[in-house]
Each structure stands twice: as structure tokens, then as C-alpha cells.
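Progress report, Aim 2. The chain analyzed during this reporting quarter is listed below.
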Amino acid sequence: MKLETKKFASAAAITMTAAYAVCAAFTALWPELAIKFLGSMLHIVNVAKFTGDVEMTFGSAILGWIPLALYSYLAALVFAWLYNRSLK
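Predicted C-alpha cells for the chain:
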């Protein structure tokens, strides 16, 4: 089954940016818990040492969302292209 490259890439970018929005909201609402989760995911005991006084704002969320959307789209585009090539 061949993937429609651009549709697959768009779906991946939409999925990733939706997950990012949930994560950004979680971080804005419960920053200390978010730091603990980050430390667990990255296997870092004292993640606060690396985060400093980083604050989640609407502007910082948008600045993070833009490259995430672009990188997700491009990665999925390459993935679909490679997948379709492997079918030949």
C-alpha cells in the first residue's frame, strides 16, 4: 500500500502539534510536575538544574510550535517517500 506523501506528512504534523499543545498547556498549568515528568523521560535526576527559570508563555509556546510543525512535516515527508521507494 503506497502512502500519499503530502497527506501523510500533514497528518503527522497535525498530530505532533496537537500533542505539543496538550504538553504546553500541561506545562503552563503545572510547571513543577512537568519538570518532574521531563526529568523522568530524560533520565535526569535534577532536571531543574538545566531548566533554570524557563517559563511557559503563549509566545514561547508559539516559538516552539512553529519548528515542531515544520520538522514533523519534513520528517514524515521523508519517511513516506522512503517507504514508497521501498515498495518498488
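The CA atoms of residues 77 and 85 lie 12 Å apart. Residues 5-86 form one domain. These observations will guide the mutagenesis work planned for the next reporting period.
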